[in-house]
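Figure 3 (text version): structure tokens given as input.
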């Protein structure tokens, strides 16, 4: 463990240093965790699957995560997929004076937009051009984090990326409008909070990240591969709850598999048609599979860069990509080698690929 260049902070000394409890999560943990200074970044994220078939993602960011060296430069990201096939991706930049984030609990203001809550109940109000949303999210699975939530990189472990799933699974009520169309519906939602002091492109080669619900089960699953200079060290993350009660989250009990790997034509990246997480805990073995049906997004990151930054990225041979998928989540429980139960539903997951393609 001591010689690894990428680890999850989980020792008693880590908890003490960070002022965290291993047994509980406090509302301040979802408050501002950085001072917005150059070299740091932070964002609050929400997504939902809605009963009318729509899918929504909202992110309040204090700066572009690709440029943490910048001073405060806030932005709002809103992605909406409608059941009729229309897709909207909005990215709205704001002046620094229109950003504020409280420390005692989540209360983020970005212009007229607001993201506020207390680890159980959240209100999210956002507008981007012709799209506006007003969301209430009520937690069902309690707030959770993988150990301290901090991933540490480097020989001195001074480089940090942290993650708090404040609402691993929750009930959503929402009013959203597209132009003159107004919709009211319900759904299932998720909220997490991320921050760090090192550019993700420096420390992460790629990650798969997913969350979903099927039958009585809720799951968060991620497989992070550190960048080359950190030995391509894997960091598995896994949380499984049944009837909103945690039943497993120990990374040492997780194995990860990719199946049906193909080359995505838009990004040139290797993509698994199915990702599978197997968790062995006590008498039971749980198998959680995400199987792609189609892409919601496949973006070469360089295509979102303009001007001199684009030239610099080309010169540096940067070829990062972001892909978001929709498809089936299947959760199966085995006991003594026999299938005891299986459940299937719809899910969304992602592949973030910062590094150059590796041999699989």
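Below: residues designed for each position.
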């Amino acid at each position: 463990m001591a010689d690894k260049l990428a680890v999850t902070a989980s020792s008693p000394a880590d908890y003490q240093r960070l002022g965290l409890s291993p047994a509980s999560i406090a509302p301040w943990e979802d408050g501002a965790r950085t001072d917005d200074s150059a070299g740091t970044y932070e964002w609050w994220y929400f997504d939902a699957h809605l009963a009318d078939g729509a899918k929504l993602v909202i992110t309040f960011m204090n700066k572009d995560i690709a440029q943490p060296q910048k001073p405060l430069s806030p932005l709002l990201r809103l992605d909406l997929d409608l059941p009729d096939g229309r897709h909207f991706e909005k990215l709205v930049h704001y002046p620094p004076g229109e950003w504020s984030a409280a420390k005692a609990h989540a209360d983020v203001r970005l212009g007229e937009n607001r993201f506020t809550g207390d680890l159980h109940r959240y209100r999210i109000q956002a507008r981007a051009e012709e799209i506006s949303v007003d969301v209430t999210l009520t937690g069902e699975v309690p707030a959770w984090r993988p150990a301290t939530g901090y991933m540490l990189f480097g020989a001195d472990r001074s480089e940090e990326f942290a993650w708090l799933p404040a609402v691993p699974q929750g009930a959503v009520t929402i009013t959203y409008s597209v132009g003159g169309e107004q919709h009211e519906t319900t759904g299932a939602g998720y909220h997490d909070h991320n921050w760090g002091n090192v550019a993700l492109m420096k420390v992460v080669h790629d990650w798969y990240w997913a969350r979903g619900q099927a039958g009585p089960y809720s799951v968060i699953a991620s497989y992070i591969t550190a960048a080359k200079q950190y030995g391509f060290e894997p960091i598995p993350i896994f949380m499984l709850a049944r009837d909103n009660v945690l039943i497993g989250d120990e990374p040492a009990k997780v194995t990860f598999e990719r199946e049906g790997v193909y080359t995505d034509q838009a990004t040139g990246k290797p993509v698994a048609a199915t990702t599978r997480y197997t968790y062995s805990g006590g008498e039971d073995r749980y198998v959680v599979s995400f199987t792609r049906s189609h892409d919601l997004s496949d973006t070469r990151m360089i295509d979102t860069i303009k001007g001199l930054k684009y030239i610099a990225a080309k010169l540096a041979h940067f070829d990062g990509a972001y892909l978001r998928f929709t498809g089936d989540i299947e959760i199966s429980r085995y006991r003594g080698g026999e299938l005891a139960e299986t459940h299937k539903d719809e899910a969304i997951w992602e592949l973030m690929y910062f590094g150059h393609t590796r041999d699989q």
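The helical segments are 12-18, 200-203, 307-315.
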